[in-house]
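Deliverable D5.2: sample structural annotation.
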Amino acid sequence: MKKIVFVAIACLLAFAAALSACGGKPQEGEQENYIKSFEVPAEAITCTVGETVVVPEVKAITKNDEEISAEISVKDPAGNAVALDSRRFSAEVEGTYVITYKIVYLENQENREESKTRNVVVSPKPAPVLTLLNDFESESDILIDPEGDSVIWTADNAQKAEDCTLNTDPQFVFNGDKSLKIEMSAQSANYWPGVKFLRSNSAETNDFSEYYSASMMIYNESEQKIWLYVGNPGKSVGLEPNVWTKAEILVSEMAANGIIADNLLNAAGNFYFWFTFESGFKPVNLYVDALYVQPDDGEIVYDTPKDFVTVNSFETAPDAIKTQGETYAITAPVYELSAGTGEISYRVYAPDGTEIKKTDDQPFAAGDEITLAETGVYKVEYTLTFDNGRTRVKSTDVTVRAAVTEPKDDVLYADFDEGLVPDLAGMGAIWSTEGSTVTLNTNAEFAKDGGSIKFEYTVAENQWPSFRFSGEKFPALSSDFMTGLKKITMEIYNAGDSDVVIKFKDVAVTLQSGWNSVAIEEARLADAGINKDFHFFITSSEYTVGEKIELYVDNVWLRFN
C-alpha cells in the first residue's frame, strides 16, 4: 500500500506544477499578462461621403505567440450598427463612424474580453468644380486609336482617323491656341458622321453624376444649318452656319439619351455626338473646342477672345433653273466683314466639271454672262479673300434643261387609288420615316377620288418624320423627263383642328384644317429638293409631345402647262 500512496502524491504534485505553468497565479512580484500585444492605430481613417471604407484587420498576440483575430463591429455617427460585407461598408453620412475591435480569450480558466476603437472621419463630398476635359491643344488630345488610350474616335466608318486634326487658324479657335478640326467629307450608307470622346480605354471610372452639364463649343464652317445630337437618341442642338455654338447637355438629361454620367468617358465611348444635315449631306468642316463639365448653370469664363476678322454675312445668288441655249448673268455676292475689306474672285464649271473662262486667260467677273450650251448643272463659285489671305467659298448651281421642242402633257405622278405605288412607272413606292406611318385610305371623306395616302405621326422629341415620294427614284430636275416642268401640285387634307407646317426642304407650306391645294412653282422647285429624293417633313419641336398629326395626300401631278 505504501507504494501506491507515494505514486498518488507524485501525480498530484506534477498536476499542480502543470496547472501553474498553464496560466495559474504568477509568483508574488510578477506581472505577466496572457495578451502580449493588441495594437489598434490611433490615427483616424478619413474619407468622403459615398466612399467605401475597408476596415483593416487587427490581431492580438498571446504570450505564447499565438494569434487571436479581433471581432469587428461598426457604428455610424448616430450610434446605429452598420452592416459589413467582407469588412467593407459605405460611408453614407458625414461625421465620425466608430470601429470596435474585440478579442475574447481564456485566462486563469476564465473567459475574458478586451476592446479597442478606431474612428473613421467622413467629410462632405467635395462640391463639383468646373472641369476642362479637353482643350485640344496638343496631338495627345486627339489620339484616335480604339485599341489604346484613345481620346476621340469617329462614330461613322466613312470617317477616318486622318479626318481629325489640330487646327491653328484663329478664326476657328474658341479658347486657347488650337481646336479639333473634323473634315466630314463622306457619309457611309448606315451611319451619320459623328465623334466619340474618351478619357481612356481602361477600367478608369470618371463620375460626373453630381455635375450640372457637359458642354463644348462647335463652329459650323458651311452654308447650311446642321443638327447635332449628343447621345442616342440624343439631345439636339442646331448649329447655324459660320458661327460658334455652345452645345450643352444637362446631366439630368443624359440617362434618357443613353449617356452614363457616373462613367462619362468610359471605354465604350458612351459620350459622343453625331449630325444630320438640314439640306442633305454635303462635305463640311467642323471645329470643336473647350469641352467642359460644369458644376452649375453659371457662365464659363473663357480666354480673352482672339483678335481676328470674322465673316458676318456672305450672300450669293440662289440656285437657278434655265433652258439650254439661254444665258446666265453672274451677280456679285453681298458680304460683310467684322473689320477690313475683301475681294471676290469667280470660277465657273461646266456640267462635266471642267472650268470654263470668259476667254482663254481671263476668268469670269460680276456682270458677265455665261452661255448655257449644255444640259446639266453649271456651278458658279465665289471666293471671298480677306484678312491677309484667308478665304470663304460659296457657290450657285444653275440647272440647265433641254429646250422644249413641243408641248408636254401634264403627268399624273400618283392618285393612290391602287395603294402605295405611284402611277408613274418605275417609281418604287411611297414610304415614311422616324415613327410616322403611311397607309392606304379608302374613306371618301379623306380622298379626292378613289383612294389617298394617310400619313400619321404622334409627336416625339427631336424627330423629323417625312413622307417620301419614291425614295431616291424621283426624276431629277436636270433629267430630260423633267424638262419644261412648271410646277408640282397635290391635294393634302389636314384632319386636325390646328394648322400643320410641312417643309419640302427649304419650301414651307402651311396646311389649314381640311383640304389644301399645294403647288410648288417652277422658281422654287430646286429649293424644294426635287432631285431624286423628293419628300416633305415635319419638325417635331414645333409641336407638343404626344400631339397627333394626320394628313391625307392625293392627286400628285407634274405640271408642264
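Annotation notes: The helical segments are 2-21, 251-254. The first helix runs from residue 2 to 21.
The annotation will be released with the project's public dataset once the embargo ends.
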